Amino acid sequence: MSATPPLDDAVKAALVDYILALADDETVIGHRESEWTGLGPILEEDIAFSSIAQDELGHALTYYTLLEGLGQGNPDDLAFLRPADDYRSAQLCELPRGDYAFSLVRGYLYDLAEAVRLEGLAASTYAPLAAAAQKLRPEEKYHLMHGRTWIQRLALGSEEAHGHIQAALNEVYPAAAGLFEPTQGEELLVAAGIVPASADVRVRWESLAAPFLADLGLSVPRGTSDLGGRYKQHTEHLPQMLEAMQALRREDPTAVW
Questions:
Q1: In whole angstroms, what is the distance from residue 157 CA to residue 201 CA?
Q2: 165 in the Ramachandran plot: left (φ > 0), alpha (ψ -120 to 50) or beta?
Q3: Alpha-carbon distance 239 to 101, whole Å?
Q4: Cβ-contact 114, 140 below 8 angstroms
Q5: What confidence score (pLDDT) does residue 231 get?
Q6: pLDDT in tens, 104-116
Q7: What whole-number distance in Å separates Cα of residue 225 and Cα of residue 177?
Q8: Under DSSP, is residue 161 helix (H, G, I), strand (E, B) or coil?
Q9: CA-to-CA distance for 149 and 207, rounded, in angstroms?
Q10: For residue 234, what pLDDT band results from cuts at 50, 70 and 90?
Q11: Whether pLDDT at 254 is above 70
Q12: Widest CA span of the chain, in angstroms?
């Protein structure tokens, strides 16, 4: 593993913003996926979504712990005491749960983006981030297997099931562009070998997602929507979600749980 280079103030600020975006993505989508607990179409999927949600929240904890090491406060405060207008999560993650097809397609596209990004981060010159990426990568293998298996099963199933997957894809695929929106100062991190360029991650992601979907007879939409999340621009859905998610912690932030 490469030695960690000294971080000047500008690079440190950029790194904090970058890791915060990853952590917030995981927190928000983890909460959305947890909303399927007890509501899955079959018991197997109820358990699967609950398990994946738990993994995503565990990933968030890993990233928030890195931020704690960079002087940003403890993980619980970062997750539960920050308002929506301080979150850097992509807008894709905050969209309501929707139907099963929507959550399935969103989860697959998100997990694929995460897997590609972690592949690059595993070679980061910032040793703590590289170690975190190497730790998280194996779980993405199973998340992707889940998404691919069920999308394939439904897309190649009945005409109705295929239509539900296509409708979800039409909504989710353009919004997924927000996952690759560069964070403030990302160019400094790329130059230092700390993170892969978001544009490169997106190209790799598309090279994997588009053929898989096309082989299932699905039309891959074009265009981009739902940008701004990296710069704290959100829909009305995020504050509503955080109000519910953070309520207990905010009742007594000093309590020991």
A1: 31
A2: alpha
A3: 24
A4: yes
A5: 95
A6: 999 999 999 999 9
A7: 7
A8: helix
A9: 19
A10: very high
A11: yes
A12: 57
First and final C-alpha spacing in the chain = 36
Helix (H) or strand (E) holding 99: none
Read off the pLDDT of residues 3-51 as tens digits, 9 standing for 90 and up: 465 789 999 999 999 999 999 999 999 999 999 888 878 888 888 888 9
**In whole angstroms, what is the distance from residue 218 CA to residue 231 CA?**
32
Is residue 238 within 8 Å of residue 89, measured between CB atoms?
Answer: yes
Q: How many residues are listed for the chain in this entry?
A: 257
Residue that is written with structure tokens 């959100």 in the block: 234
Look-up: residue for tokens 């308002």? 83
Tell me which DSSP letter residue 85 carries: G
**Of residues 235, 237, 242, the one with CA closest to residue 79:** 242
- Residue 223: burial class (beta carbons within 10 Å; 0-12, 13-18, 19+): exposed
Mean pLDDT of 138-144: 89
**How far is residue 233 from each of residues 5, 79, 108, 111, 117, measured CA to CA in Å?**
32, 17, 24, 22, 22
Tokens in use for 200? 């490169």
Q: How far apart are CA 171 and CA 72, in angstroms?
A: 35
CA distance 51 to 116: 21
Handedness of CA 47, 150, 202, 226 (dihedral sign): negative
Which one, of 164, 122, 163, 158, lies nearest residue 140 by Cα? Answer: 122
Contact of 159 with 49, CB cutoff 8 Å: no
Q: Note the pLDDT of residue 42.
A: 82
Q: Residues near 178 by Cβ (< 8 Å), separated by ≥ 6?
A: 90, 91, 92, 225, 226, 227, 228, 229, 230
Confidence (pLDDT) at 5: 58
* CA angle at 34 for the pair 235 and 65, rounded to the nearest 5°: 80
